[in-house]
Write a structure and sequence with these properties.
Layout (H helix, E strand, L loop, with lengths): L5 E5 L3 H12 L3 E6 L2 H9 L5 E3 L5 H8 L7 E4 L4
Parallel strand pairs: 1-2, 1-4, 2-3
Length: about 80
């Protein structure tokens, strides 16, 4: 990924949080998605401005608005099994 590109990180557990911090430090615009509202709050406290609970209405539209209609350049899945 390059500076200014858009990435969606699905799963904001430990690996997802670290991934988001690395992407933020690299100048990537990211959208974090998790099923757990507590994890989303933790991501926001860590500076992940665009972190969302998966079950919100119009999630895809929200991401399209954030990316100015372009959508994500990449998606990283970091789910814990």
């Amino acid at each position: 990924m390059k500076f200014g590109e858009n990435c969606v990180v699905i799963g904001l557990g430990l690996i997802g949080q670290i991934t988001c911090q690395i992407l933020n430090a690299s100048g990537i615009i990211l959208n974090g998605i998790s099923l757990n509202p507590n994890i989303v709050d933790l991501a926001k406290k860590n500076g992940e401005k665009y972190s969302f609970i998966r079950h919100i209405e119009c999630l895809e539209k929200t991401i399209m608005d954030i990316t100015r209609g372009y959508g994500a350049d990449a998606v990283i899945v970091s789910l814990q099994l």
